[in-house]
Amino acid sequence: MTQHSSIDLLQGTLDLLILRTLQAEPMHGWAISDRIQQISQDILQVGQGSLYPALHRLEHRGWIRAEWGVSELGRRARFYRLTPAGRRQLDVETADWEKMSGAIARVLKLA
Amino acid sequence: MTARDLWLRLRALLLRGRVEREMHEELDFHVEMQTRKHLAAGLGAVDARRLARAQFGSTALVEDRVRDARGIHLFETLFQDLRYAIRSFRRTPTFAVTVVATIALGLGLNTAIFTIFNTYVLKPFDVRDPHALYEVKWLTRSGVAPRFTWAEFETLRHDDSTFSEVLAQQHPLITRIDGRIAFVGLVSGNYFRLLGVDAEAGRTLMPSDAARPGGDAVAVLSHTFWQRQFAGDPAILGRKLLIQGQPCEVVGVVREGFVGLDLAPTTDVWVPMTLAHQMQNGADLFGPEQPRRLDIVGRLRPGMASRIATSPLLLWMENATRHLGKDDQARSVELISRATAIPLSPMTVFALSPVLAGFGLVLLIACANVANMMLARGMARQREIGIRLTLGAGRGRLVGQLLTESVLLAVPAAALGFVISRATIQAGVSVMFATLPSEFTEFMRVVPMPPDARVFAFMVVAAIATGVLFGLAPALQTTRAGVVQMARGDFGSDFGPSRLRSALVVAQITASVLLLITAVVLARSTQRVAAFDPGLRTHDVISLDVRDEARQRIVSALEVHPLVTRIASASTIPLDGMAPTVAATRPGSSAPIRVRYRYVSEGYFDLFDVPIVAGRAFTREEAVAGTPVAILSETAAARLFPDRHAVGETIRIAPNNGKLVPAARINRFATVRIVGLVRDHAADLANDGPATAAVHFPSSAIASNSGLVVRVTGEPEAARRTLDAALAIAVPGGVEEIHKLQEFAAGRLYPFRVAYWVSGAVGMLALLLTLTGVYGVLSYLVTQRRKEISIRVALGANVWAVVALVMGQSLRLAATGLPIGVLLALGAARLFGWRVLMLQAFDPVAYVAGAFVVVIACLMASSFPALRAARLDPMSTLRAD
Question: Rounded to two decimals, what is the model's pTM?
Answer without folding.
Answer: 0.71
